[in-house]
Specification:
The complex is a heterodimer of chains A (308) and B (290). By secondary structure, chain A is an alpha/beta fold. Chain A has eleven helices and 13 strands. Helices cover 72% and strands 2% of the residues of chain B. Chain B is built from eleven helices and two strands; from the N terminus they run H-H-E-E-H-H-H-H-H-H-H-H-H. The chains are: A alpha/beta (308), B mainly alpha (290).
Chain lengths: 308, 290
């Protein structure tokens, strides 16, 4: 069996009375793309900080690359690439210099830093911005630069905390494409996100986290199979009438969820269900049949929507 | 919680390989981490290099010209004495100006730069995610600022010699060292204070107005401390600026009547710097590893 690069057992972190991470277990084998999916405040970033060896655990076992982060922080961090939630690039330095100074923290020679910086600028599609000021970059470019910076030490594990939060759809797709290439090259990715589409795109396997606990674990498709139906009908009757309509729809689908703005019907045959709804004499203002997503898994597991 | 390193022999080959790579990867950062941080900070100073050069050369030039040609020519009464009687006013005031220039550097670098690192640009958090440790981040910043102070103090001293503002130019060579020490004695406690601030609500402007300026005015910079009423002299006794000025004067023209041994002044500066450094280091660790 291949040894995992990260293994956590009963991992726990408290801040005073507040329990941020409440005894979680997971393992990440090398080369896997592993995601922590959950709403804001679920304990994802705290978990990332413990794995990143910058925050001591309160209890439990944690091994990263076979070492204990509490005693071998510098050793572990020398093998990680970290993309934080908030950019912390040095805006007083030029784009390329940001990569070079960062590489130096790992004890990499200036010449090798410069060589890798040029390669990474290519990878991040920022060659033309090498001499630009960081402040002149767009949000998506800054993220790409942060990812390039995290790769300067050729890390075994790349950790990304909410990598595309705040980016426009096009910038997100460019970023996903870059991350997908890393995944193809065999880099282990550990990422947190509260976007289900991101998790579906990038993760081989993920855990759904809420209130510091793991609610479910599996590949995106397995989780959807296990916790949701193949298709979902989204019906809107107007915010006043959604609840009434939902009551009449009960029993028609495998499961009915009433949200403030719409009713969700879980079924394996969306079109067939729509016909039956019409036969009941119910006429939603809009109706939509779509595939189940991780959003539905999360709703099922927690009774709450991921992005609120 | 196990605190031990897994023993080599019992581990599977792939784990052993991971551990070996990680161990090798941390050797240089563990040893030189602070210097890498200093390298970054010095690169950053280039972006305001003009300010660094001007404060290093321009302002001493102005002070020495203004005081040497203006004020000193105007003052007839002997202000201070060395072992051989009264000394030039410029001799008296120059070591104090040098020390206050070093302290001035720290009122910029150990305030706004620290705030930028933790909050505005968050670069300390980036350093924190690398193999470099929080005490090394703190030490690296101190090294870079010390380098800037060395530049300021050495160029100040060169100009002092040029203006004939030093009694003994050989023992005087130690005046820049005392100046840097003054900067650290004032700056490291300030660094500890700044590193603990999470929101700038004008605290740094207050430090400038209510700490640095009074020290500059009441530390026997322009006239002997003994001229002040006793109830104001305590400002001098706790002021790194006064201790550095007095030590600098002793190095320039020797001990006047009633002067303390320069070693006492240097000892006070060292104690202040070390105490400030210890607290600053703790604040950095607490904040970055909280």
């Amino acid at each position: 069996m291949v040894a995992p690069v990260i293994s956590a057992r009963g991992l726990r972190k408290t801040f005073g009375e507040f329990v941020a991470v409440d005894g979680i277990d997971f393992e990440v084998p090398p080369g896997e793309s592993f995601g922590l999916l959950g709403p804001n405040g679920a304990g994802k970033s705290t978990t990332m900080r413990m794995v990143g060896a910058v925050s001591q655990r309160t209890a439990g076992e944690l091994r990263v690359l076979g070492l204990d982060p509490d005693t071998h922080g510098p050793e572990i961090r020398s093998q990680l690439g970290v993309v934080p939630q908030d950019d912390n690039l040095d805006t007083e330095l030029k784009v390329r210099d940001n990569l070079i100074v960062y590489g130096r923290y790992f004890g990499i020679s200036r010449a090798l830093c410069a060589q890798r910086a040029d390669e990474l600028l290519g990878f991040a599609q920022l060659e033309e911005k090498a001499k630009a000021r960081v402040d002149d970059l767009s949000g998506g470019m800054k993220r790409r630069l942060t990812i390039a910076r995290a790769l300067i030490n050729e890390p075994r594990i790349l950790m990304l905390d909410e990598p595309t939060t705040g980016l426009d759809p096009q910038a997100r797709h460019v970023l996903w494409d870059r991350l997908f290439r890393l995944k193809e090259r065999g880099t282990t990715l550990v990422l947190t996100t509260h976007y289900m589409d991101e998790a579906e795109q990038l993760c081989d396997r993920l855990v759904v986290v809420d209130h510091g606990r793991i609610m479910a674990e599996g590949s995106p498709s397995a989780l959807i199979r296990q916790y949701s139906t193949r298709e979902v009908c989204e019906l809107r009757f107007g915010s006043e009438r959604n609840a009434d309509a939902a009551a009449r729809l009960e029993g028609l689908a495998d499961r009915v969820e009433t949200l403030p703005d719409r009713v969700l019907l879980y079924t394996d045959d969306g079109e067939g269900l729509l016909e039956r709804v019409a036969r009941l004499g119910l006429h939603p203002t809009t109706s939509l049949v779509r595939r189940s997503s991780l959003e539905d898994v999360f709703l099922r597991l927690t009774g709450r929507s991921l992005v609120e | 919680m196990s605190q031990t390193t897994p023993s080599e022999e019992t581990l599977p080959a792939d784990v052993r390989e991971m551990v070996a790579a990680a161990t090798a990867g941390a050797v240089r950062p563990r040893r030189f981490g602070a210097w890498y941080i200093a390298e970054h900070q010095l690169r950053q100073m280039r972006s305001y290099g003009w300010t660094v050069v001007m404060s290093g050369i321009g302002s001493p030039l102005l002070y020495l010209l203004g005081i040497g040609l203006g004020l000193a020519a105007f003052i007839d009464v002997p202000v201070a004495s060395g072992p051989d009687g009264p000394v030039d006013y410029l001799w008296f005031v120059a070591p104090a100006l040098l020390a206050s220039a070093a302290v001035g550097v720290t009122t910029e670098e150990f305030t706004y730069t620290v705030m930028a690192g933790f909050k505005w640009r968050r670069i300390f958090w980036g350093m924190n995610a690398s193999p470099v440790s929080p005490p090394q981040v703190c030490a690296g910043l101190v090294i870079a600022v010390t380098a800037r102070m060395v530049f300021v103090c050495v160029s100040y001293y060169a100009l002092m010699v040029l203006f004939g503002a030093v009694g003994n130019a050989v023992t005087g060579l130690l005046i820049p060292v005392v100046g840097v020490l003054a900067g650290l004695a004032f700056g490291l406690p300030l660094l500890a204070f700044s590193a603990g601030i999470s929101d700038d609500k004008g605290q740094f402007a207050m430090v400038q107005r209510f700490v640095f300026t009074p020290l500059f005015l009441f530390s026997g910079t322009f006239y002997p401390l003994a001229t002040l009423p006793v109830w104001l002299q305590w400002i001098g006794w706790i002021s790194p600026l006064w201790h550095a000025s007095e030590a600098g004067r002793a190095l320039s023209y020797g001990l006047g009547p009633g002067a303390w041994s320069p070693w006492v002044h240097v000892a006070v500066l060292v104690v202040m710097a070390v105490a400030g450094g210890v607290v600053a280091r703790r604040v950095f660790v607490g904040r970055l590893r909280g």
